[in-house]
Design brief:
Elements lengths: L1 H19 L6 H21 L1 H6 L6 H20 L11 H18 L17 H19 L7 H20 L4 H17 L4 H21 L1 H15 L6 H13 L24 H34 L3 H25 L17 H41 L17
Helix pairs in contact: 1-14, 2-4, 2-12, 4-14, 5-6, 6-7, 6-8, 6-13, 6-14, 7-8, 8-9, 8-13, 9-10, 11-12, 12-13, 12-14, 13-14
Length: about 425
C-alpha cells in the first residue's frame, strides 16, 4: 500500500512538469520570425542610405521608418496571437470587401509608379498585400464551413471562383501579375486541401493557365518582362538593365560575400536595392552561404507552418496556418527566383526583409494569426493532458477503488 502511494506522489509532479514544459506559443516559429526580422533590419540599414539621401532626408530615414514598422507590426502580431482565430468569422467577408474597395480606389486614382499603379498615399500603402491576406482568410473560413457543398457547381465552385477571380482580376489591372497569380494558386491549394475534387481542380487549373496566358499576352508589362526574360536566357547581355545589375551583384558576392555594408552595386545603379532587389545585396554582401541561410529560414518557416497546421484543433485552423505560411514562403520563393534568373521579373518584396510598411504589416498580421492557431493547439493538448492526469490522480487518491498493486516480486496485492 505504501509503495503505491509513493509511486503516485512521483507521477503527479512529472505530469505537471510535462504540462508546464509546453509554452503557450510556438517557440521555433518565433525564433524563425525573429531571425528574418533581424536580417531584414540589418540589410535595410545597409541598402537604404542612398535612397534616403535621394529623398532629401537623413541617411537613416528609411531605416528608422522600417524599425517603426517592425515594432508596430510586431506588437500587432503579438496581440493577434491572443485572439481566438474563430473570432474573425463574422467580419472576414466585410474585411475582404473593404480591401476590394481599396483596390478599386487604386485603379481610379491611377498613381503610376514603376510602370504600375499599386499604391495609395504617395506609394506608401499597397492594398494588394492585404488583398492576398484577406482572400486566404476568407477562403479558409468559407471552405471550412462549406465542406458539404464545396464540390457542387452552383453552391460551391461558382461562388469560390467568383471571389478568387474578382480579387485576382482587380490586381491584374494594376498590373501586378505575380500577386494575382499568388492569389489564384493559393486559392486552388486551399480548395484541394479542404477536400476539393481533383478532377474539377485539374479543369480549373487548365482554364486558369489559359486565362493567364491571354492576360500576359495582352499586357504590355507582361510582354516586356517575358521578352526580357527570354532574351536573358539566350544571352545575358540581352537581359534588362535591372537583371544585369542583379547578376553583377551575385557574381561579386561569390562564396562568402564582400562583407556587410561593403556592396557597391546598391550605389552604382542596382534598382530598388532596399525593396525588390534586396536579396541581390544579401548575396553580394554575405555570399552564397549567407543567401543559403536566408533561404533555409524561409523553408523552416514553411515547415513550421505545416507542423502548426497538422496540430491545429480543427480544419479551419489547418487551412489558415497552411494558407498564410505558404503565402509568405511563396512570396519569398518568387522574389529569390527572380533574383537568380529562374522567373521573369515580378516586382514583389521579400517578406519580413524588404523595406515597406504594407508588406511588413500584412506578413506579421498573418504570422500573428498563425501563432494563435499554435496557441490554441497547445491549449487543447494541455487541457486533454490535464483531464487524463486528473483521472489518474483521482484513482491514486481513492485507494479503496484503485487498481490492485503488486509487491516486489510482481505478485498482486489487495
Amino acid at each position: 500500500m505504501g509503495e503505491r502511494a509513493v509511486v503516485n506522489e512521483y507521477v503527479k509532479p512529472a505530469a505537471r512538469r510535462s504540462s508546464a514544459s509546453r509554452l503557450p506559443f510556438d517557440v521555433p516559429m518565433l525564433l524563425i520570425i525573429a531571425s528574418l526580422l533581424v536580417i531584414g533590419l540589418l540589410m535595410v540599414y545597409s541598402t537604404s542610405l542612398d535612397a534616403s539621401l535621394r529623398m532629401g532626408e537623413k541617411p537613416t530615414y528609411l531605416f528608422s521608418r522600417q524599425v517603426l514598422w517592425v515594432l508596430l507590426s510586431g506588437a500587432f502580431a503579438f496581440g493577434l496571437s491572443f485572439i481566438d482565430y474563430h473570432f474573425y468569422r463574422p467580419f472576414i467577408l466585410w474585411a475582404l470587401i473593404g480591401v476590394l474597395i481599396l483596390l478599386l480606389v487604386v485603379l481610379i486614382r491611377n498613381d503610376v509608379r514603376f510602370n504600375s499603379s499599386r499604391a495609395l498615399y504617395e506609394g506608401s500603402f499597397q492594398p494588394s498585400e492585404f488583398a492576398k491576406l484577406g482572400i486566404i482568410l476568407y477562403l479558409s473560413f468559407w471552405l471550412s464551413s462549406h465542406r458539404e457543398t464545396m464540390n457542387l457547381l452552383k453552391d460551391g465552385l461558382l461562388p469560390l471562383l467568383f471571389m478568387i477571380g474578382l480579387t485576382a482580376g482587380m490586381i491584374v489591372l494594376q498590373p501586378d501579375l505575380s500577386a494575382a497569380g499568388t492569389v489564384v494558386l493559393l486559392g486552388l491549394l486551399l480548395f484541394f486541401l479542404a477536400g476539393g475534387d481533383l478532377k474539377k481542380l485539374t479543369i480549373f487549373m487548365i482554364f486558369i493557365l489559359a486565362a493567364g496566358t491571354i492576360v500576359v499576352a495582352v499586357s504590355r508589362t507582361g510582354q516586356a518582362r517575358i521578352s526580357d526574360y527570354l532574351s536573358g536566357l539566350k544571352d545575358l547581355t540581352g537581359s534588362s538593365y535591372h537583371v544585369k545589375r542583379i547578376y553583377e551583384a551575385i557574381i561579386k558576392g561569390g562564396t562568402f560575400g564582400v562583407g556587410i555594408g561593403e556592396a557597391d552595386t546598391k550605389f552604382t545603379g542596382l534598382p530598388l536595392p532596399h525593396t525588390d532587389s534586396i536579396f541581390a545585396v544579401i548575396v553580394e554582401e554575405t555570399g552564397f552561404f549567407g543567401a543559403l541561410g536566408v533561404m533555409i529560414l524561409y523553408v523552416l518557416l514553411l515547415w513550421r507552418g505545416m507542423v502548426i497546421a497538422k496540430r491545429a484543433p480543427d480544419q479551419l485552423g489547418s487551412l489558415i496556418s497552411f494558407g498564410l505560411t505558404s503565402w509568405i514562403a511563396l512570396e519569398a520563393f518568387l522574389n529569390i527566383s527572380v533574383i537568380v534568373g529562374l522567373f521573369p521579373f515580378a516586382g514583389n518584396a521579400l517578406p519580413l526583409i524588404s523595406y515597406g510598411g504594407s508588406s511588413m504589416i500584412a506578413s506579421m498580421t498573418a504570422l500573428g494569426i498563425v501563432m494563435n492557431v499554435a496557441r490554441r493547439s497547445v491549449m487543447k493538448e494541455t487541457a486533454e493532458r490535464s483531464q487524463t492526469s486528473a483521472i489518474v490522480d483521482l484513482r491514486g487518491r481513492d485507494w479503496r477503488r484503485s487498481v490492485s498493486g503488486a509487491d516486489r516480486y510482481g505478485n498482486p496485492q489487495e
